[in-house]
């Protein structure tokens, strides 16, 4: 039996592959995302006609649109009136909210968990709205420090509670896949407002509840 011909190798990074298209002659802000992704792949030396990449620019464009959809959302639309008068005045905590975001420095993901707590001052919010508020700010180009602060500011703005406490624990692929290549490190950030900042007992209760094992 005659040997099967070997497939042609992919072009090395130093070549442009098959990149016969051209970028639109428009300002970058007006250029289609698909065209910009295609140009980046060409710059890497890839062949846009090979099967695995044929629809990659469109897929990446759709992915980025979803991952940055927080820019096109506002607090009022997300909360949608789900704030209710209620005399409850103890801590409300939603733990282990999944967080997925993109580091603005390298456009690589960071992900982890957010713990969102507040002390009501006559008003409570529908519990499902707290994860939605987290998503509004996570689905943007971010740094974890600013993300933590923005979530705290949003809860404070929507509810005007007696206090707000936010903790985010996350791992950053920009530290794992490149650079220092630390596979087991986590970054923890917090933002405390109102009674969480002033009262040690409230802060200790929050930290204790966050540390408790999951049911």
Q: What would you note in describing this structure?
A:
By secondary structure, this protein is an alpha+beta fold. The chain has two domains: 58 residues, no CATH class; 130 residues, GTP Cyclohydrolase I, domain 2, CATH 3.30.1130. The protein contains eight helices and seven strands; from the N terminus they run H-H-H-E-E-E-E-H-E-H-E-H-E-H-H. Strands 5-2-3-6-7 form a five-stranded mixed β-sheet. The chain has a two-stranded antiparallel sheet with strand order 1-4. The longest helix has 16 residues. The termini are far apart. The model has no long low-confidence stretch (mean pLDDT 90).
The sequence of SSEs as H and E is HHHEEEEHEHEHEHH
Uncertain regions: pLDDT < 50 for 5+ in a row?
none
**What is the total number of structural domains?**
2
> What portion of residues is helical?
25-40%
Class of the largest domain in CATH? Alpha Beta
Tally of separate helices: 8
Any guess at the CATH architecture of the largest domain?
Answer: 2-Layer Sandwich
Which structural class fits the helix and strand makeup? Answer: alpha+beta
The overall pLDDT average reads 90
General form: elongated
Major sheet: arrangement of strands: 5-2-3-6-7
What Rg, in angstroms, do the CA atoms define? 23 Å
Question: Which terms summarize this structure?
Answer:
single chain; 215 residues; alpha+beta; GTP Cyclohydrolase I, domain 2; 2 domains; 5-stranded mixed sheet; two-stranded antiparallel ribbon
Summarize the helices and strands and which ones pair or pack.
Blueprint: H1 33-43, H2 56-67, H3 75-79, E1 83-85, E2 92-103, E3 109-119, E4 123-125, H4 129-138, E5 141-142, H5 144-159, E6 163-172, H6 173-176, E7 187-194, H7 195-198, H8 200-211
Parallel strand pairs: 2-5
Antiparallel strand pairs: 1-4, 2-3, 3-6, 6-7
